[in-house]
Every structure is written in C-alpha cells, then in structure tokens.
Amino acid sequence: MLHTCEPWPDEMMSFLTTHFGKPEHVERLQGVAGKDACTRVRCTQGSVVVKSTAGAREGAFYEQHAARLRQQGVHIPGLLWSSIDARTTTWLILEDIPHAFPQERWVGDKSQLEVLFHLHNATWKERRPVVDDAYIPVWDDHMTELALDWFARSTGAGEIRAQLIEAQHAFAALPPRDCCISGDPNPTNWRVRDDGTLVLLDWEKFGYGTPAFDLAITIPGLGTDDGSTESLVAAKYLELWNETGNLFPYDQPTVVRWIQVAKLFTLVDVIATASRSPDAHSMKTVQCIVQHLPERLRQLTTAD
Description:
The chain is an alpha+beta fold. The chain has 2 domains: about 10-95, 2-Layer Sandwich (Phosphorylase Kinase, domain 1), CATH 3.30.200; about 105-300, Aminoglycoside phosphotransferase (APH), C-terminal lobe (Aminoglycoside 3'-phosphotransferase, Chain: A, domain 2), CATH 3.90.1200.10. The protein is about 45% helix and about 15% strand. The chain has helices at about 10-20, 55-65, 65-70, 110-120, 140-150, 155-170, 210-220, 230-245, 250-275, 285-300; strands at about 25-30, 40-45, 45-55, 80-85, 90-95, 100, 180, 190, 200, 205-210. The strands form 3 sheets. Strands 1-2-3-5-4 form a 5-stranded antiparallel β-sheet. Strands 6-8-9 form a 3-stranded antiparallel β-sheet, with helices on one face. Strand 8 (about 190) and strand 9 form a beta hairpin. The longest helix is centred in the last third of the chain and has 25 residues, at about 250-275.
C-alpha cells in the first residue's frame, strides 16, 4: 500500500514514474528533522530517497560542489533530480543507499574519518571553494540565554551562566574558516552501499569551519568524561594527514580541546533550539543534556 506525502510536485512524480516505475510504498526515514522531510520511495523498478528542504543550501551543494568532492574521495549520494517549487522548497531525488552504518563502528571508524579528511583536505585554506549561503556555526549571546532557560530554577544557575559564557568564548576562538565542513556528520547520517562504501548523507549544513567541529559531531552522545574518545578520534584523524605527507597545523592536544569545545556547542545548541521550538528534539534527549551539561561545563572550564 502506498503511504504518500502529498503534495509532491507533478514534475517530480513524472520523473519517478518514467525512470523507476509506479511508486508502491513510501517510508518516512528516521532521524531527519521536519515533517515528511526525507522518505524512501519504493517503485516497481527500484527505490530512491526523496528529500525536501526549506532552503537552497543542500540543492546548491549537490549542483555546485558534489562532483568535485567525489573526485577527491568524499562519498556522497548520487543526485538524480532536483527542483525548487513556487514556495522555495527544494526537492531532491537521491540515490537510495541500502545499509545502515553499524553501531559498533560509530566511534573512530577509519572509513568515516577518511571521508571527512578528504573533505577537509580538498577544501583547505586556498583550496576552499566559494560556498553561497555557507553554514558557519556561531555561538552567540542569544543562544547562551536560551540554554540558560533550562537552569533558571537551579541553585547553581549563576555558576552555570559563568561557565556557559566561558565556553562560548572558547568556541569563538576556534578557527572559523579552515576548510569546508559537512556540518552534521553524526552517526545516523551515514549509510553503506552494497560494495561496502561508507557514504555521508545530509549536506544541509555544508559550509565553513574547522575540522574539530565535524569530528565532535561524529562522537555519539555527550562525549566522554575523561576525553578518551575525543583523543582517539583526534589521533586517528591526524594519522590520515601524516600518511599523505601534509602537515596539519594543529597538534593533537589542541585538536582534542577543540573537539570538546565543539561538542559542547552541539549540546548547547540542542537545548537552546528546544527553548524556542519544543518539538525540534525529543524531550528525552533534551533532559539528558540538561542533566549532564553542568558537569561537562565544569570539566571544560577547570581544564583551562
């Protein structure tokens, strides 16, 4: 039975039926924000992924940058069709990549880090392309205040405020334009082709930043108390630079520190977003972050 996400553009439906046959089943994919934003469409002659986004950034990524990055070893889904409708919604038909990224590979996976290394190396400094509407992660005062809403009744609210501000300043010191970043290479945004190729999905946050930002997002959950996972990821990533003979300008302790700072940004961003849009993230996730964030902040600020 077909469970569709109407209305889809007539032009897109025509492409689907012409190239893949009649749609028979539509499956909403998990882990993707936005109602009906991403679905797997099984047709009589194959399956594809249909994605709709409110902005033009991801469509522009596929049209302007994906081909060059594939040549550099960045594994990206194939774009089969794209269009922008009258409401400025971007519609994409993408290659359906069949297999999930196994959870036992989520931490420090070499294939995963290789994809990010190739992305960063191919766009490093003078090799960085011009990206229209580039995503650049910013931690501003408003984000801090929104996050503080969750601690307003806490007895340690004053201390948390001071630590959040200190962490905000630490994040502002990260290099903002070392290279291009994926912006969201979290473990659920990877899939595996039949030949074993690991592919990075979701390029809505393609933009500029420092490699530590992408590396932080690959780490599941809240990160580690002792920094062991952050150190492991940094070491394996730096090995890839060393193997090519390219000199990476930052040492391992610096990269580890920046991963921890960037990870804090991702946590604060979640609860700040939840303050203004309560349905943006699951309340279970938000409550977990609120519970553990004060300790993460203490670890970061006392390490200085």
